[in-house]
Amino acid sequence: MNTMLQTTLFKILFYITLIAITVLAFLQNYDALPPIVSFDDLLNHTVAFTVLFLLFRHAHPTLLTKYIVITLLSYAILIESVQYFLPTRYASWSDIAADGTGLIIGYLILFLFKRFPYTKNPFS
Fold first, then answer.
1. Tens digit of pLDDT per residue, the chain (124 long)?
2. Other C-beta atoms within 10 Å of 59: how many?
């Protein structure tokens, strides 16, 4: 696949995922969602930020990883800050920690694919 086309696809997927996570973060009645969506809040945060990290990295391949981490951690803090003021939601430091864990897992996934070059990287 053409590198420019691949980057464009990752950008589209990243921004769709970012919008979906934002909508879910600000829903008034999150607990009313089907169990597949509201399975475990901290696990949801971890998986969401792992996916966001992987998509962001491939959507913007020239951006330094530290800027991706800073941007996504800022986004996590923004979500929790807004939730603090919503009457049906609450802010939680553990959610930010789960988001950070997701970023670390995403980084480790990329590291492992680079470390073992004989493994086909599905993201390249």
1. 678 899 999 999 999 999 999 998 888 876 666 666 656 778 889 999 999 999 999 999 999 999 999 999 999 999 999 999 988 888 899 999 999 999 999 999 988 887 776 655 555 5
2. 22
Alpha helices, DSSP H only, in the chain? 3-26, 41-59, 65-85, 93-115
Residue type, 57: R
Dist CA 81 CA 120 (whole Å):
40
Question: pTM to 2 decimals?
Answer: 0.85
Report CA-CA distances (Å) from 33 to 11, 55, 58, 93, 95: 27, 25, 30, 23, 18
Q: Which long-range contacts (CB under 8 A, 24 or more apart) does 55-63 make?
A: 55/10, 55/13, 55/14, 55/17, 56/14, 57/106, 57/110, 57/123, 58/6, 58/7, 58/10, 58/14, 58/123, 59/7, 59/10, 59/11, 59/13, 59/14, 59/15, 60/11, 61/7
